[in-house]
Specification:
The chain is mainly alpha-helical and about 425 residues long. It contains 17 helices and two strands. The protein is globular, with a radius of gyration of 22 Å. The C terminus is likely disordered.
């Protein structure tokens, strides 16, 4: 698919150089540096992925694994969108909700949940072996990491959006209300952003413990839903809470209570020891500005909407905010990889801000018109993000003299690792940071 998009952009003369020579030259000295201290990753996931990658033919490009994994991620979100677009399928029956006038939702078939679980498993597995395949075939380069993390930033909306279908809207009082779920989305966006903001200031990507844990738990929960039905998550637990009402504060505790404080600690430690980038406070905070502006704009639309746009089409609004965030986050990833200055204000915010202002000030804004504006803006933002990503990949390929989904045979013969297991070690505590 991407191999069709990229030549099409070139032929239609839509190509634009988003990076430029200064940023591209920054990739020439880039060296990947990460720490993953999660017991689940170290003792379960990495050993499993080390065996899975042996099944993969050596001629398969790592970026192809990344892209197919991302398509699986979209697929598990899209499959649920077909059967539960408005997040109402999980609505409990009157006997369970205690609301005689509220009909039960039309349950998503069990086979769909199995399909969702399989697609998520494939997405997580392919995302876990792409780097191992790159080192196995001697084809590691900065494009691979940028491609991987860039798609991961977009995957946040699809993973979280699919999970919400298990619990549904709070029409029955047994789930999480739409607005609070909207807040959870932004909490997850900020958690992902903080990891790369941390790397922007320390030079090291500290992989959060919650990612693998959440993916494995989601996989198990989807299979449990297939076996036990959607009503499984409406059962009252000790304390009178349901599963969704427990997961909501747990999400904030994991992200705001752990990820952010740990990131601040790592940045402070890197500055004190002189191993970080030692930027000024204002320069260090620069990558957060665009996301915070986007957050303010989106919350303003949701809270001031004349027709309660979040209630009209939450799935599309989630998709819009997730795509805007992904576009902003990709630029931060590029800045930290190329060791260049992060942008202060993302261009993607301009159409977002203009749209919200027009919706709020334009008289006679009916629900139909506001929905049309939402769909038009979402379509535009998606196309703009795809254009940005495709052009960046083209620039990187030209600079590195590679093709995105192709392994140079000479390169593979020269750099291939003879061992079956991934031999790349994570940084130890006493190793220097790049």
């Amino acid at each position: 698919l991407l191999q069709e998009i990229i030549p099409t952009i070139s032929k239609m003369k839509l190509y634009y150089e988003y990076l430029g020579p200064t940023i591209l030259s920054g990739f020439d000295t880039y060296k990947y540096s990460s720490k993953d201290t999660s017991p689940l990753s170290e003792y379960v996931m990495h050993p499993f992925w080390n065996q899975v990658v042996k099944i993969c033919p050596r001629w398969v490009a790592p970026n192809l694994l990344t892209f197919v994994g991302f398509l699986c991620c979209i697929g598990h979100f899209g499959l649920l969108a077909l059967y539960d677009y408005d997040f109402r399928s999980a609505t409990a029956p009157p006997g369970q909700s205690g609301l005689p006038d509220l009909p039960a939702g039309v349950a998503v078939p069990s086979w769909v949940w199995v399909g969702v679980a399989v697609l998520l498993f494939l997405s997580h597995t392919l995302d876990g072996i792409d780097g191992k395949q790159a080192r196995r075939t001697g084809s590691s380069n900065p494009l691979g990491e940028l491609f991987d993390h860039g798609l991961d930033s977009w995957a946040t909306i699809f993973i979280t959006g699919a999970l919400y279908s298990m619990f549904g809207r709070n029409d029955d009082g047994l789930s999480v209300p739409l607005f609070r779920m909207f807040c959870v989305f932004w909490n997850i966006y900020l958690c992902f952003l903080v990891s790369h903001w941390e790397k922007y200031n320390t030079g090291v990507l500290y992989l959060p413990w919650g990612y693998d844990f959440s993916m494995v738990c989601s996989f198990v929960m989807y299979l449990a839903t297939a076996a036990g039905g959607m009503g499984l998550w409406k059962v009252s637990l000790p304390g009178g809470f349901t599963s969704a009402q427990i997961l909501e504060p747990a999400c904030y505790l994991g992200n705001v209570g752990l990820t952010l404080p740990i990131a601040i600690y790592n940045i402070r430690k890197a500055y004190k020891e002189g191993t970080g980038k030692n930027r000024t406070f204002l320069e260090a905070m620069r990558p957060l500005v665009s996301t915070l502006i986007a957050m303010v704009i989106c919350f303003t639309w949701v809270l001031r909407s004349p027709n309660s746009i979040l209630d009209l089409d939450p799935r599309c609004l989630f998709l819009l905010t997730g795509t805007v965030f992904a576009n902003i986050c990709c630029k931060l990833i590029i800045a930290q990889m190329s060791n260049t200055r992060s942008e202060l204000f993302s261009v993607i915010l301009i159409p977002l801000a203009l749209t919200v202002v027009s919706v709020l000030v334009m008289p006679g804004m009916t629900a139909g018109r506001e929905l049309a504006v939402l769909y038009a803006l979402t379509g535009f933002v998606i196309l703009a993000h795809i254009h940005y990503g495709s052009c960046v990949v083209m620039e990187m390929c030209d600079h590195l003299h590679v093709r995105p989904f192709h392994i140079k045979h000479s390169q593979a013969r020269e750099k291939v690792s003879p061992a079956g297991d991934d031999t790349m070690r994570l940084l130890s505590a006493d190793e220097s940071h790049v």
